[in-house]
Amino acid sequence: MSKIIELKNVNKWFDKFQVLKDIDLEVAPQEKIVICGPSGSGKSTLIRCINRLEEHQEGNIIVDGTELSESTKNIEKIRAEVGMVFQQFNLFPHLSILDNCSLAPIWVKKLPKKQAEEIAMNNLKRVQIDDQALKFPGQLSGGQQQRAAIARALCMEPKIMLFDEPTSALDPEMIKEVLDVMVDLAKGGMTMIVVTHEMGFAKEVADYMIFMDEGKIVERAKTKEFFENPKSDRTKLFLSQIL
Amino acid sequence: MNLIAKPSKENIKTYVPIGLFLISFSLLDVFINAFFNFNLMVFLPSQLSYFLPLILGFIGFYLIRIEFSGVRSLDILNKNINSNNFNALLTLFTIFIIIKSIPPMLDWFILEANFVGNSKDDCTGDGACWVFIKVWFNRFMYGLYPDSEQWRINTAFLILFAVVGASFFVSEKLKKYFILFLVFVFPFLGIKLISGGSFGLEYVESAAWGGLSLTFIISAFAILFCFPIGVILALGRRSSLPAIRYISIGFIELWRGVPLITVLFMSAVMFPMFLPDGTFIDKLIRVLIAITLFEAAYMAEVVRGGLQALPKGQYEAAKSLGMGYWRMNALIILPQALKLVIPGIANTLLALVKDTPLIFVVGLMELAGMIGLAKTNPKWLGMAMEGYVFAGLVFWVICYAMSRYSQNLEKKLSTER
User: Fold this and answer.
1) Which of A51, A103, A138 is opposite residue B415, by nearest beta carbon?
2) Would you list the DSSP string of B161-218?
3) How far apart are the first and last CA of chain B?
């Protein structure tokens, strides 16, 4: 089976502190992977390395056949193919929701404005906030903002979506509306890597679970096996605390 | 000490009228004293009559200081200018000073001032000699620019005001072209029109330019160029490339660390010595470049403040959408950062406008410079006050207009709400 993401022996340090240790990871197209683990375990850093928001110092990261290196051209090519959703939404506050979504297609993919706005409206409809298209991010609730951020990433028509704790900054009653959108996306066949503490969501959509601790992948298993029969003691302890 | 009861809601009906009467009386006393030079309390010993308004007003303010009186206007008054004895005194002093200072100002500016005539001898009153401004007005506006050619300056500014004015009424699309014209075409068109030398226009050397029109020319060009240079320097100072970063830091710190007057002097006097023989750069252009680079260094630091205020997430979101450095800055970062620092930008630009008089050190005479020149004319000695009051007023009008515009812009660009 061909791989769309391949990490080989990736190591990363912040100054002298090693945050990623010998990470090996392969993701096939349309696979959904959920990464969990205690805070500070390197989960966010790992997925941020995949679109080069963080640099790795050793090893190889290959995304859709392109190797991440110093080459700005490669980095921009990969970023245009990999959508990312952040914990803090990071919508552009000076632009309307519609402009947030159509900006990158117009300027990066060079689509005509009309077509870009059509794509934007379709994606906003998909996350069910097309009626908010002309508002500014500051006028939306947290859940709506995060859905807008997902729509913005989808407008670039990415092959892969990365989610960095997408529901951690949300009020409890807004978490569901965002997770619903993500479930819908998963069922549509998107390749997804999700860092989250929402185990219900993980059980529903993940093909594989990855448990990280202290910069290492401690356990990688099929979802069912991971929850029913975890192998390492560290995983068992973690699951017992959050479930 | 319970001779009189503390002002409260019970005695509000008697205390407030008495208090208001005492305050009114004390203000009236000061007013009559200031405007008609007549002392109502002339029968009292002179020291007592001098302090009486203060004492009466103070007692009055004490009597009306009633907490939770239930009368809205009284509560507002007490809260703002009469919250305790000290504030009541400050209030009285402030009002007295204002009343006392109005008559002499009125006298100097208008009542005793001279408006008609055409020489210093026509100024017989004790007040201002506005004849001075009237006679010299043409010079204050155009400097030594020949009278017969002044229509060229007028035309240039007319075009400018017409285009700017019209841009407020046209559609967004047309507005874009108007702005492009103003930024890229008009400055050079205007300068060509004013300097002449071709199209049958007589050449007027820049040394003859002056007055308010020169203030505008220098301010406009410096603002136009210092802004983009400042933005690039700000980005450069935050660049990840060490060479660019250190060059930017060096440039900013060098220009920021030197007084403008020194920079101007060097640009006009020393710089030509370093040029190869035979090359000649117009003095005005040298001065313009000096002011532009000087203000660009300040602008860079203002813009950098805005860049640093943006959360890291904005950069990351832009990058994650595949935007490169320039697109990220042009579309996401700068629009937000510049909006944040509009007050700082306005500050810098106002300072720039007010710095223009310094070009007198190299012999260029804008408005304040021309006034300085005129007041040393043997026929018009002793007119410094009128001249500088006029200059102050003109600069204030220009700067206040800029300030209002920046506040408007801030409101217009706000997406909070």
Assistant:
1) A138
2) HHHHHHHTTS-HHHHHHHHHIIIIIHHHHHHHHHH-SSTTPPP--GGG-EHHHHHHHH
3) 56
Handedness of CA A162, A168, A169, A172 (dihedral sign): positive
Q: Are B139 and B211 in contact (CB under 8 A)?
A: yes
Q: Which residue has tokens 């096996």?
A: A225
| Phi–psi pair at B235, nearest 5 degrees | -65, -40
| DSSP designation for B385 | H
Phi then psi for residue A159, to 5 deg, are -85, -25
* Segment B278-293, tens digit of pLDDT: 777 788 888 899 999 9
Contact B320 A79 (CB under 8 A): yes
The structural domains of chain B, with segments of one domain joined by +, span: 12-111, 130-145+204-416
The pLDDT value recorded for residue B416 is: 62
| Token duo for residue A50 | 């995949």
Name the CATH superfamily housing domain B130-145+204-416.
Answer: MetI-like (1.10.3720.10)
Residues of chain B contacting A84 with CB distance shorter than 8 Å? 316-317, 320
What torsion do the CA atoms of B158, B173, B341, A169 make, to the nearest 10 degrees?
Answer: 170
Window A:47-66, CB contacts with B under 8 Å: 51, 53
Q: Give the list of residues 6+ apart from residue B288 with CB closer than 8 angstroms, or none.
A: B218, B221, B222
Note whether A172 contacts B: Cβ–Cβ < 8 A.
no
Closest CA to A53 of B295, B316, B411, B137: B316
CB A223 within 8 A of CB A203: yes
Asked if residues B349 and B218 have their Cβ atoms less than 8 Å apart, the reply is no
Mutation test of the interface with chain B: which of A90, A100, A101, A140, choosing the one with the most B Cβ atoms within 10 A? Answer: A90
Residue closest to A10 by CA, chosen among A217, A162, A211, A164: A217
CB contact under 8 A, B319 and A138: no
Q: Output the average pLDDT for chain B.
A: 87
User: Closest-CA residue in chain B for A74?
Assistant: B322
Q: Which of residues 320-339 of B touch A (CB under 8 A)?
A: 320-324, 327, 331-332, 335-336, 339
Q: What pLDDT score does B2 carry?
A: 55
- Residue B310 C-alpha, separation from nearest chain A C-alpha, in angstroms: 11
Rounded alpha-carbon distances, angstroms, from residue B23 to A195, B62, B140, B391: 72, 10, 47, 39
Closest to B348 measured CA to CA, from B288, B298, B384: B298
Nearest CA in chain B to A134: B415
pLDDT, position B1: 44
> Are A107 and B323 an interchain contact pair (Cβ–Cβ within 8 Å)?
yes
Hey, of B172, B320, B333, which one would you mutate to test binding to chain A, going by the most A CBs within 10 A of its CB?
A: B320
